[in-house]
Amino acid sequence: MFKILLIEDDVTLYNEIRERLSQWSYDVYGIKDFGNVMKEFTSIQPDLVIIDIQLPKFDGFHWCRMIRTHSKVPIIFLSSRDHPTDMVMSMQLGADDFVQKPFHFDVLIAKIQAVLRRVYNYSLEQQIHLKIWNGSSIDYVKNTVQNEAGTIELTKNEMFILKILIEHVNQIVRREELIKSLWDDERFVSDNTLTVNVNRLRKRLEEIGLGQYIETKVGQGYLAREEVGTE
């Protein structure tokens, strides 16, 4: 089931769209705090964002820019504004489509399906390799971690360890489990090599302010911590 984040402050319209999309088996989320959209975006990790231009506090263009700094998730603008510059601006900011209000619901559904089909049919493998963690974008293919503080590149072993820890976020992963996972992946490591790699991983993450999120649990293993409301 695809998750859709609908950034719309008109409660009546939001409820109508949510109800209609649920009939198509889409899981629709709304925004509680329009002053902190990114916090809810990273928590939900939607497969598609539908966003109005005119919103409380900051407009849709602002949040589109913010989302694009962290994610390539498809974005559809939904707005009553019909000036060509608004459509051009949305495309320049990285939006995938623009739907003008008032709209026929079948048109919106068709555009949603087209965008999801285009993005996820052709780049599903790439989608799997992208992750948001504590406000940072992790690319498992490029072995990079990026946030506002900068970008770091990890070794394959370091990224592999980070990936396993994030898959079990806020849970302790025993050292034996990490070693077994690395061994099964033909990355032959000993207990001492694991310690060295985790220490290097934490040191690299410290460069962009993430080092404290990898915790050592003495006698047990390691834990990737995630702050409440982020992902």
TrEMBL record:
Residue span(s) of domain Response regulatory: 3-116
Domain of life: Bacteria
Compartment(s): Cytoplasm
Residue ranges flagged as DNA-binding region: 127-226
InterPro entries membership: CheY-like_superfamily, OmpR/PhoB-type_DNA-bd, Sig_transdc_resp-reg_C-effctor, Sig_transdc_resp-reg_receiver, WalR-like, WH-like_DNA-bd_sf
Positions where 4-aspartylphosphate occurs in the chain: 52
Molecular function GO terms recorded: phosphorelay response regulator activity; transcription cis-regulatory region binding
Record domain OmpR/PhoB-type: where: 127-226
Xref: Gene3D superfamilies: 3.40.50.2300, Winged helix-like DNA-binding domain superfamily/Winged helix DNA-binding domain (1.10.10.10)
Recorded GO CC terms: cytosol; protein-DNA complex
GO biological process: regulation of DNA-templated transcription
CDD domains, sorted: REC_OmpR_NsrR-like, trans_reg_C
Keywords of the record: Cytoplasm, DNA-binding, Phosphoprotein, Transcription, Transcription regulation, Two-component regulatory system
Protein name: Response regulator transcription factor
Organism from which the protein derives: Bacillus timonensis
